[in-house]
Design a protein that fits this description.
With 264 residues, the protein is of the alpha/beta class. The protein has eight helices and 14 strands. The longest helix is centred in the N-terminal third of the chain and has 12 residues. It is globular, with a radius of gyration of 18 Å.
């Protein structure tokens, strides 16, 4: 653990959701109480998540039902950010959206199609919708020159029954097969972290990113000058530490308020 210098005292937090606050709808023990304590301490936070199976409204409702004191305005999701990106860069263009869950609500005003008329291919969270026929349609659209957008590059995510393949596993296959590189919207894109920082209104040197993944959460945040706090829940595996080092390693989010008050 690297001591935090006085000039880098943490004034705000970016917090991952899946694997940090809950796993597939089951709260991490003590996490809700920890977030309540952060509120009491007056430490601002934004939830920065690659979640694509729920809208911000749905995710906010879930978290509040689990006891987390969050508002929808404190949520920055890869699904919502991708919808905004499409409206800005490809207005009115037909999009083939490959995503699991109910996040399509975020895309209500975007022209979505399920055929070869699409000029934009968008990959979101993986699941049973990732059939061979739908992946092959995405492949052929990309070969014909369709724009390529990905909500995130996560290889795996944690469910109640264990680790499961996520978007990145399929995204890498499509990129290799087509020779195309997708435009990344969610983590680890620097723009996504910058959106969280803008919501906090703080410079990166006074912000910590709390996550369960070195590659998706910690390393990119450190690259922008933030403190990286890795929790040993969710996707975390001890072997992860062979690929990089966080500034702080905690057993779970429940330990965060105590650690913060000890270094502030």
């Amino acid at each position: 653990m690297v001591p935090i210098e006085p000039a880098r005292l943490i004034q705000g937090l970016l917090i991952d959701v899946d694997g940090v606050l809950h796993v597939d709808g089951d709260p991490i023990p003590g996490a809700a109480e920890a977030l309540q304590r952060l509120n009491a301490l007056g430490i601002p936070y934004v939830l920065l998540t690659n979640t694509t199976i729920r809208t911000r409204r749905q995710l906010g409702e879930l978290l509040r039902s689990l006891g987390f004191p969050v508002s929808d305005d404190q949520l920055v999701t890869a699904g919502a950010a991708t919808a905004t990106y499409l409206r800005t860069h490809y207005p009115d263009q037909p999009c083939f959206l490959l995503v699991e869950g109910d996040v399509r609500e975020e895309f209500a005003d975007i022209h979505l199609v399920e055929n070869d008329s699409a000029t934009v291919v968008v990959l979101g969270g993986a699941g049973s919708v990732y059939t061979y026929d739908r992946l092959n349609l995405a492949f052929r659209l990309l070969l014909r020159g369709a724009h390529f957008v990905a909500m995130h590059r996560n290889l795996v995510w944690e469910r109640r029954d264990g680790l499961a393949l996520d978007t990145g596993a399929f995204l890498m296959g499509l990129e290799a097969a087509t020779g195309r590189q997708a435009h990344l919207v969610g983590k680890p894109s620097p723009d996504f972290f910058q959106a969280g920082l803008a919501r906090l209104g703080l410079p990166p040197e006074h912000v910590a990113m709390v996550g369960d993944s070195l590659t998706a959460d910690i390393a990119p945040a450190q690259g922008l000058g933030m403190t990286g706090i890795l929790v040993q829940t969710g996707r975390f595996r001890p072997s992860d530490l062979e690929t990089g080092q966080p500034d702080v390693l905690l057993s779970s989010f429940a330990e965060l308020p105590t650690w913060l008050t000890s270094v502030q």
